[in-house]
Amino acid sequence: GDPPAPDAPMPPMSLDGGNEEEYQEYWDYNDVNPRQLSGGWVEYRSHPQVKIEPYWFHLKTAELTFEKPPEAHSVVGRLEAPGHDQEELGGEGPE
């Protein structure tokens, strides 16, 4: 999809830079438990420093919207978050 127009309204900014509850919600939706919805959409949260807001991303078209698409009405599965299939870091550290 095309990026938003430069004059498109943006969500309001956070007044406090985010709190613990907002960060927990952000990590849950974006890293720990991404929700794949019907219609090919995934529901995410914007960063708490901006202002935690839900947004939806379409996996095939790369469309992004802050208004819930009508076809994204139910959770159909979990999306594997990027990086979760990588080998865990280890070692002894610097010598």
How would you describe this protein?
- With 95 residues, the chain is an alpha+beta fold.
- It is 14% helix and 20% strand.
- A 5-stranded antiparallel β-sheet has the order 4-3-2-1-5.
- It starts with 19 loop residues before the first helix and ends in a 17-residue tail after the last strand.
- The mean pLDDT is 83.
Short synopsis of the structure:
With 95 residues, the protein is α+β, with helices and mostly antiparallel strands. The chain has one helix spanning 20-32, and strands at 35-37, 41-45, 54-58, 64-65, 75-78. The N and C termini lie far apart (49 Å).
Oligomer: single chain
Q: What is the gyration radius calculated from CA atoms?
A: 16 Å
| Structural classification | alpha+beta
Overall 3D form: globular
**Spans where pLDDT lies below 50 across 5 or more residues:** none
**Helix amount:** 10-25%
Number of helical regions: 1
The overall pLDDT average reads 83
Query: How do the SSEs run, as a string of H and E?
Result: HEEEEE
Proportion of strand residues: 15-25%
How many angstroms separate the termini? 49 Å
Query: What strand order characterises the main sheet?
Result: 4-3-2-1-5
The total of beta strands comes to 5
Major sheet summary line: 5 strands, antiparallel
Key traits:
95 residues; alpha+beta; five-stranded antiparallel beta sheet; 5 strands; 14% helix
